[in-house]
Design a protein that fits this description.
With 568 residues, the protein is an alpha/beta fold. Strand 14 and strand 15 form a beta hairpin. 24% of the residues lie in helices and 16% in strands. The structure holds 1-deoxynojirimycin (NOJ). This is Glycoside hydrolase family 13 protein. InterPro entries: GH (IPR017853), GH13_cat_dom (IPR006047), O16G_dom_2 (IPR045857).
Length: 568
């Protein structure tokens, strides 16, 4: 067993560490491991059942010790929480349920002192319907100049009773909701690609563009190291908002450029933002959440004068299959090389079924899975998938709780669900609460250290089995998933050749397996359900399986569904 044998010592965290992480000359983000904190579910300092900024602040040393480089925080802004904070009412305020601006300031400062960077979420495609602009636009009626900051349109039909076009909301149902005029008569409609409580901004309005430049500066002045840009592909809509001409539009997502997604006009916005980011010291970055038809189109978002990274959702959607994985790895690396941007790798986030549960189920079920599947198999593959991800060149994203091997909670009762898509007809999402359950830290009774008091509340219920998966329960157990992550991140820090570069050298490997070299390092992956023998590539460094591969007559036996790291 080689876990825990890696040197876990880190340079003392200080301002220099913050300014000059690994590869700082080329950009710290190029090989960074970035940990996603979902504030509602990370740590609750005041016992109200909802995570908060002081809770996160108190747990920063855990993240430093885990070995990540940066922390991305999902939204904590003032919000009615119609979509768990992705409906922002005030972009410059912290919602009282999460704390105060002072808490945000303290969190950023503490993180920097620990050598961690902070990335905040920016939601520029839509605001909350409670945003002051939208409320005034409604109150002031059709003549309001603020209506131009959103997409208000008269309806079709004899009395305007039909939506202005046929677009559907990602969360299900029409993408339009009709307003009521101040005198009580039925009024114009407004566009919302997501929930009705999330009206889309009109990015042709100079007021919108100016406001977001100012919001960027507000948070950059607060010291944040970057932004994860929500729905980065959605800001610009095709002129005239043309009909799509068909039902089932969500199935089209990912295959074609839609009149509301991945329009070429978005790139001008990011070129402007890049200039602002570059004005600030310390390499501040922008990360695009851009669902595009192809990886090549994703690369457009990270051209040298645009953003720094874009999530690689094609990788997230790939099954546990050697040939498919190799194809998507090659495609991802090949697509990013011409624009000199790092590839990113991501397996889980707050919108998709956790990968331990995806891999526990048959392939092809998508990202809103409602069956637990074969848990042991899922965990074995999840651990192997993580070691593969962390051996690839580029930047990797870790979603809170995946380091504990958490499965999705697939049996949440309907009455506790909060995903807005769950309450609408036939949306793309709907079961995202399953990956948002508060994470277990310690103890034997819920909320397992998520909140300060045993028996206290948590906004979604945690399964009883999670006592055994807590940070406390896994710490020091060399077979635990938490120690696997700690060891892997320590090895990655000690061997910069893992994350660096833009390519891998594929080695011959039997069907169902992968083998590639990166400098003095080899990674082997067995995606099959049976052990496979290969010529031993070197000395075992780390394994996702229970024990190092057995070596017999120079042949290494790769365990079923495992990844091994080797020093050569
Ligand atoms: C993507 C976010 O990750 C998701 O949680 C949210 O519902 C939509 N964008 C809308 O903001």
């Amino acid at each position: 067993m080689t876990q825990n044998l890696a040197d876990t010592s880190r340079p003392a965290a200080d301002a220099t560490a913050h300014e000059a992480g690994a590869g700082a000359d080329r950009g710290w983000w190029r090989d960074a491991v970035i940990y996603q904190v979902y504030p509602r579910s990370f740590a609750d300092s005041n016992g109200d059942g909802m995570g908060d900024l002081p809770g996160i602040r108190g747990r920063l040393p855990y993240l430093r010790d885990l070995g990540v480089d940066a922390v991305w925080l999902s939204p904590f802004y003032a919000s009615p929480q119609a979509d768990a904070g992705y409906d922002v009412a005030d972009y410059r305020a912290v919602d009282p349920m999460f704390g105060t601006l002072l808490d945000a300031d303290g969190l950023i400062r503490d993180a920097h002192a620990l050598g961690l960077r902070i990335i905040v979420d920016l939601v520029p495609n839509h605001s909350s319907d409670q945003h002051e602009w939208f409320q005034r636009a409604l109150r002031e009626g059709p003549a309001s100049p603020l209506r131009d900051r959103y997409h208000f349109r008269p309806g079709k039909g004899g009395n305007g009773e039909l939506p202005p076009n046929d677009w559907e909301s990602i969360f299900g149902g029409p993408a339009w909701t009709r307003t009521e005029n101040p005198d009580g008569t039925p009024g114009d409609w407004y566009l919302h690609l997501f929930a009705p409580e999330q009206p889309d901004f009109n990015w042709d309005s100079p007021a919108v563009a100016n406001e977001f430049r100012s919001i960027l500066r507000f948070w950059l002045d607060m010291g944040v190291d970057g932004f994860r840009i929500d729905v980065a592909h959605g800001l610009v809509k095709a002129p005239g908002l043309p009909d799509l001409g068909g039902a089932d539009q969500l199935k089209l997502l990912g295959n074609d450029v839609m009149p509301f997604f991945d329009q070429d006009g978005v790139h001008e916005i990011y070129r402007g933002w890049r200039k602002i980011l570059d004005e600030y010291p310390g390499q501040r970055i922008g990360v695009a959440e851009a669902w595009t038809p192809t990886v090549q189109r994703t690369a457009n978002y990270v051209r040298p004068d645009e953003l720094h990274q874009a999530f690689n959702f094609q990788y997230l959607g790939t099954s546990w299959d050697a040939a498919e994985l190799r194809a998507v790895i090659d495609l991802s690396l090949d697509s990013m090389r011409p624009v000199d941007a790092p590839t990113t790798w991501v397996l889980s986030n707050h919108d998709v079924t956790r990968h331990a549960t995806r891999f526990a189920n048959p392939p092809g079920l998508g990202t809103q899975i409602r069956t637990p599947g074969d848990r042991a198999l899922g965990l074995r593959r999840a651990r192997a998938a993580t070691l593969l991800m962390l051996a690839l060149p580029g930047s990797a994203y870790v979603y809170q709780g995946e380091e504990l091997g958490l499965p999705d909670v697939t049996d949440l009762p309907d009455e506790v669900r909060q995903d807005p898509s769950f309450f609408r007809q036939a949306g793309q999402d709907g079961y995202r609460d399953g990956c948002r359950v508060p994470i277990p830290w310690s103890g034997t009774e819920a909320p397992y250290g998520f909140g300060p008091t045993a028996g206290g509340p948590s906004w979604l219920p945690q399964p009883a089995e999670w006592a055994a998966l807590s940070v406390e329960a896994q710490t020091g157990d060399p077979t635990s998933t938490l120690e696997l992550y700690r060891s892997a991140l320590a090895v990655r820090k000690a061997r910069p050749d893992l994350g660096a570069g833009t390519g891998v050298e594929w080695l011959d490997a039997p069907e169902g397996t992968l083998a590639f070299r990166r400098g003095s390092f080899v990674c082997t992956v067995n995606t099959t359900g049976t052990p496979v023998r290969i010529p031993a590539p070197g000395r075992p460094l780390l394994t996702s399986a229970g024990a190092d591969p057995e070596t017999v007559d120079g042949q290494a036996v790769l365990a079923a569904d495992s990844t091994d790291w080797w020093a050569v």
